Amino acid sequence: HIVKECPSVKHVYIDFGCRLAKTWTWYLQALDKELPPSAVDLRIMVNWMHAASHDMSCQLENSGRFQKDAGFVVGEQSEQLWAMTKDPSSLMRCMTLQNRHDSVECLLSVQYMASVSFLYPHADINDLKLARLVLVLKAKMDSMHKKLAELDQRLDGIQAESNAAGIHDLHAAAQEFLGTQFAVSPTLSERPFLEAEYVRLREMDIAVQKLQSIGFSWKEAGGMSPAALLLRGSTHKEQRELQAKLTDLEIKLAISPDSVWTVDSNDYTRGFKLLAEQQILRYQSAIDVIVHELAQKSIEKRQQGEASKVTHALASKIRGLHAKLRSSLEEMYAWMAAAHDDPHADVSLPQSVVDAMLQGEPAPWHVGSHSSGLRLMLGRRFYMAENDRQRCIEQLSRLPVEKKRLMQWLDIMLQRVQERIRVVAEDMSEHAVIGSLPHPYELTRHHGVHFWLQWHAQRLAAILKEVNEKLNW
Question: Residue 129, exposed/middle/buried by CB under 10 A (0-12, 13-18, 19+)?
Answer without folding.
Answer: middle
